[in-house]
Amino acid sequence: MDALSSFVFVVGNVGQSAIKCVYITFIHNGWSGLGLLRSGEVGSLKRKVCMLMSILTRDEIIREVESGRIKIDPFVKDAIGPASIDLRLDNKFRVFKKINETFDITEDANYEHVTEYLEVDDRFLLLPGESVLGITLERLTLPGDVCGWLEGRSRFARVGLTVHVTAGFMQPGISNKQVLEINNVSPIPLYLYPGTFICQFIFQKCIGEAQYQGRFADQLKP
To answer: What per-residue string of b and e applies to 81-90 under the rule 16 or more CB within 10 Å gives b?
Structure first.
């Protein structure tokens, strides 16, 4: 244990039973976080602390990449920030068809029925109110105990560009490129340029291990 602080014993009632808990903050092998344990578990404190979820900072991201546990292809070390890595926009898109019919939102919904695939040479024009599916240039491969979050960058958000509508969580064990549900919520047309560091990925440690094997496990195109 590198550092352990802020022990606060709290007695509370759950139903008819008195529960004594311990709140802790900790730093361990480069990880930091906040935990809550029952007082009877203090003897196994180190094991419990190591299981808590944490976000990887720059040094941890580099360490995981150099060990081969996390793979980013192609990898640009300078794209790593304090606690995330910026990812670039590829030249592959899916645009929505101009159709006047309803689309059923069910478990069987297939976005390919209402979109068309295209690749651009230089730039893509996104008009106000329009949405388009893009994809990252980089392919991410995560171990079973690391998941992540895809977020936009503030410099682009401030001009009305969103890079994912709702699906920002990336499952542990993925090995694919990340599809971007891009939307222009500004009143002005925006040009998108392939190769731009358009979004950022945040790595988070999981409790336990899992492997995503869903519908988009092998996606390399939007």
So the answer is: eeebbbbbbb
Judged against a pLDDT cut of 70, whether residue 87 lies above it is answered with yes
Active site residues: 181
Region 103-109 average pLDDT: 86
Residues 30-42 pLDDT 10s: 444 545 544 454 4
Query: Token pair for residue 121?
Result: 């040479």
In DSSP terms, 37 is beta-bridged to 22
Q: How far is CA 29 from CA 3, 26, 33, 137, in A?
A: 9, 10, 12, 32
The token duo for 57 is 């900072």
What residue ranges of the chain are covered by domains with CATH 2.70.40.10? 58-205
The structure's pTM equals 0.74
Q: What is the DSSP letter of 45?
A: H
For the domain 58-205, what is the CATH code? Answer: 2.70.40.10
The DSSP bridge partners found for residue 207 are: none
